[in-house]
Amino acid sequence: MTRFHFARTATAVSALSLLLAVNAGAADLPAPDTPSPNASSPNASSMGATLDGLLDAGRRLNPSVQAAALQTAAADAEASVADALDDPTLRINSDEVDRTSGPRINKTYIMVEQDFPLWGKRELRRRAAQAAIDGARGRERATGLELEERLKNAYAQYVAASTALAINGDVQRLDRQMAKNAADRYAQGLGSQGDALLAAADAARTEVEATRLTADRTAAMARLNVLLARPADTPLAPPAGARPLPKATPSLTVLVDRAQADNPLLAAGAAEVRGAEQERHLAARAWYPDLTLSVGAIQRDNGPTGYTATIGFKIPLQAEPKRAKEREAVAKANASRQSLAATAADIEGDLAQSLADLTAIRQQLGIYRAQLLPDLGTAHEAALAAYGRGQGSLAAVLEAEHRLHQARLDLLRIEVQGQRALAALERLVGGPL
């Protein structure tokens, strides 16, 4: 009898010591044991350890960001010659000298002809092209912010899965010890077969949970690698930890003001409106004729060389194409304005949603950390102590352990949701809060 009491007491002490590790807090838990490259090897890398490193690599490596930058470069190249003149036309004309008698004498006209747009048309083209550059820059920056949001979300999932694996590892060690003790007690005739089977089943449950969490971490690593344009199975360094959520956030009014000033989609939309307005003015100027100048030399077979010059204007007789272009330009300008208004409304709505989510998540995290987890930890300790004194059941201990374990995993899930809400806010306002 004395030996049975000692075995139960030793089990309780061992379990309680493991419980202290489980209750240590998600932020303080070490990353799960994973093979890492030797720091001295040429393939060693710290990629994945910090969010800042991932963001920096994403800006350099992500093909979507590179494509957006090339689109901006293309718009800049196009704008550099938007107000340039068209190529001149070289005309060579062979004719005869006017005379009433005598042999035929040839004369040749060699002329260069150049069109000159008037009435500020070249300036309007330049302004429209500059607006196109601004729009491309806004879309490039928007692509970068979208990439940052995706990297932040994937990194939060990577951190959560790694931390959950560490928590589950502690629970696994606890369950294995309890399963071993329950089996020993049953073999000694001091415990029931049901307790031994229940403890073994619980140990198996944590093994299954470990495989699921490992898959979650592998998936998060694959998402990060793909965003960095690397093979999905490229190893990543263990994460150092999630960035803390802000203790307070600006009001919705302040966030909306920031978005109106810094959101790149709004900037791109405003640039499209400016460009459409310039196109509308340009369509209206089509009624005004352009100037064509020609200068050249006259070469005669039997006579002195002469010179010639002509001036011409295009006559705007084709009215219907011009009216159609005006209607098209007006429709495009109005469509750009409506699209900008819709984008602004969507951004304001998304800001309100993300801000509400982040506020609610901060409140949930406060309840979990200040009340729920401490209460569940105390309940688990009490169940272990009662079981060690022979006053409780193994089922009660395992149930308390399940609740504590699930609460820790729920806390990680809520933290990931908070990171997503924060990343969405930062994308919408155009930068860090």
From TrEMBL:
Belongs to the outer membrane factor (OMF) (TC 1.B.17) family. InterPro entries: MdtP/NodT-like, OMP_efflux. It comes from the Bacteria. Residues 30-46 have a biased composition (Low complexity). This is Outer membrane protein TolC. It comes from Nitrospirillum amazonense. Gene3D superfamilies: Outer membrane efflux proteins (OEP). GO terms for molecular function: efflux transmembrane transporter activity. The keyword Signal applies. Residues 1-26 form the signal peptide. Residues 30-50 are annotated as: Disordered. Keywords: Signal.
